[in-house]
Amino acid sequence: MLARLFHRPQLRLPILRRSSPIHRLRRHASTWRTRFIPSIKILRIPTLRAIHIPSIRDLRMPTPKAIQATAYWIARVSNYVILFFIGYHIFITHFFVYGPVYGISMLPTFNNSGDWVLTSSHYRRGRDLQVGDLITFTHPIKADTQSLKRVLGMPGDFVLRDTPGTSGVMQQVPEGHCWVAGDNQEWSRDSRMFGPLPLGLVKGKVVARKAAGEWLLRGLGEPWAEPEVD
Fold it and tell me: Once rounded to an integer, what is the mean pLDDT over residues 156-160?
């Protein structure tokens, strides 16, 4: 008897099927709410508590791995830079040098400006030089200046000491030296002023010439023009 008095019968709710009228009513209500009631977005204004001010504690010290990686890349880039300069030095010392020509001492062979010459370093220090070659050398008086002249005498040759037509004094070129002069002798400072040139100052021999205007107009495919030799 007591069990029957305190027994609560279980309520059985009706199962709502998709075709039931209650289910259709709920579906239409949700559709109407989403279509016709606009959604309102709440704007959150940041407060002072939300703003984070960095402090010294927030600064992260680089880890040993990061320091090691940075040092590795610095060393690698430094090695490439050093190798580049070493290769450039070897190239200009033992192979070729390409540079401009300025001045009127070599007219009409070279213009006052705009001509570029290719110099072979194989002939440095007077190796395999001959009379008539165009050479570049370090100026014996101005050590920071390089000059371009024509060889008129090799060791043992007799050359005119002064400008032709002024005097007929001859001079013999000593060993280890050469006699150089500019094609425009009236405006050239050469061996007539500083004497025989030591072969140790010779940097190279001009093997090709190219004018800047022709280089730009004809392009890189044109062959090099040999310098004019009188």
Answer: 92
